[in-house]
Amino acid sequence: MPEYKLTVLGLDVAFKTDADGERVQAATDLLENRYQELEARGLRLGKQKLLVFLALGLADDYLQMTERLQGQDTELQRLLDKIDGTDNG
């Protein structure tokens, strides 16, 4: 499992993951960009609060995508059931 040593949002972090380097870099870039967007809004908050807003935004995105994926799974199952019913009828 590869080990990564990065500086993310000014913090040095080291970790191991099965994710490839491109995926780790994409995640790092996403965090850096979202953080810069929050800072650019002129929010005069400490770094900890900005990081909490960043985490909440990413968590919300994750929850929305999970809900969307579940909806698609439900719709696919409905279509498969309909196809199965049509084939048997």
Structure description:
The protein is of the alpha+beta class. It has helices at 21-40, 47-88, and strands at residues 3-8, 11-16. Strand 1 and strand 2 form a beta hairpin. The relative contact order is 0.08.
Helix fraction bin: 55-70%
Low-confidence stretches: none
Care to count the β-strands? 2
How many domains, in number, for the residues? 1
Strand content: 5-15%
Give the overall form. flat
Structural class: alpha+beta
Task: Give the radius of gyration.
Answer: 20 Å
Give, in order, the helices and strands: EEHH
User: Whole-Å distance between the termini?
Assistant: 52 Å
- Compute the average pLDDT: 89
Number of helices: 2
The description of the largest β-sheet is:
2 strands, antiparallel
Strand order in space, largest sheet: 1-2
Organism: Desulfohalobium retbaense (strain ATCC 49708 / DSM 5692 / JCM 16813 / HR100)
Pfam family, one: ZapA
Protein name: Cell division protein ZapA
InterPro entries: Cell_div_ZapA-like, Cell_div_ZapA-like_sf
Key features of this structure:
89 residues; alpha+beta; two-stranded antiparallel ribbon; 2 helices; 13% strand; flat
Brief sketch in words of this structure:
This protein has 89 residues and is α+β, with helices and mostly antiparallel strands. The protein has one domain (3-88). 70% of the residues lie in helices and 13% in strands.
